[in-house]
């Protein structure tokens, strides 16, 4: 498992990433740490000269090294090196995608799972661009050269990094994660995808119904049809009528769900479907799911970063179901009142991962699941029940052709995450 955290935070030691429940069901679960922030992704001209023409992908190299170790040693722990599945969430999902296109990781895993989410079309910085960021970082540290940078204490390195997660609002230099360095990642992912130069392994593309909703904040903040309509006109301008013809709530009670659906169809759902479309062109099977189950909160419980009444299936909310780590959320104080259905849903999701490792498909008798195809343009909804749902392809196509006006992201987190 490759944890998320925007490539600046994260740890395999988090309780909701535990592998005990998966091991009890017959899997071998491996967690590891990889470098993040400047220590994991800083490119710099002097580093490039020192290291044979490439720099900056150290965190990605850590991940590949872990996969190589697993390939060579997992049989000693009861594992099978031919049945390795890699899974990542958020920045971890992007890490999984990077491993699929990294030559050094070829042959080290049989399947890949990306939660929030699968995106193979986004732009990735190249080495020259990343080196410019490295020079900005050197300036922020007040260092004259690479040698001086290496003598800067770790706390000053952390303080120079931009951070806006988990309630933090730290101004600094933004390090973006994996880059196209010509070595670890030899070319842009869309180019490698088009040429077929990647790991042709089965994929699960997963996302949450209340995931991060880029540029849809104004719509999600609406509470009435009037507010929703006003936000839509601000976001889409003279195209607002076209949007409202496709995504118009029937009444005030339907506003929040409609806003969420529009944000998802423009964001993570569209990305997952694009992934399936692109991978299918190379003969790769992709299974798509949307996790929609809201955690059952203990009545009256409060949090600093989320409102249990409105939070929904937020970024990372699916993880305790995939790994059976629900009880971790009550380890310090009671916060969730898990039901029998929550346990059942978690068991079926875990078994899908184990089936993927064993057979190359997450399809099980308890949770039938077929890969996406142009004639099976559907996704598996994992929520208060389990069902197959069709994509709103007309709405998604309209949103892709009419992106909303950009909205400045807040200094703090745009949505909660564990």
**Strand arrangement across the biggest beta sheet:** 1-2-3-4-5-6
Could you say which structural class the secondary elements and strand pairing correspond to?
alpha/beta
Strand fraction: 5-15%
**CA(first)-CA(last) distance:** 15 Å
Work out the oligomeric state of the chains in this entry: single chain
Main beta sheet: strand number and arrangement?
6 strands, mixed
Shape: globular
Low-confidence stretches: none
The string of secondary-structure elements, in order, is: HHHHEHEHHHHEHHHHHEHHEEH
- Rg, rounded, reads 22 Å
* DSSP summary: helix tally: 17
Structural key phrases:
17 helices, alpha/beta, 418 residues
Structure description:
The chain is α/β, with parallel strands linked by helices and 418 residues long. The chain is 38% helix and 8% strand. It has helices at residues 20-24, 37-41, 45-50, 58-73, 91-101, 127-141, 146-150, 154-159, 189-195, 217-220, 225-236, 240-246, 255-266, 268-280, 319-323, 340-359, 393-401, and strands at 85-89, 111-115, 203-208, 286-291, 378-382, 386-390. The chain has a 6-stranded mixed β-sheet, sandwiched between helices. It is globular, with a radius of gyration of 22 Å. The two termini are 15 Å apart. The mean pLDDT is 95.
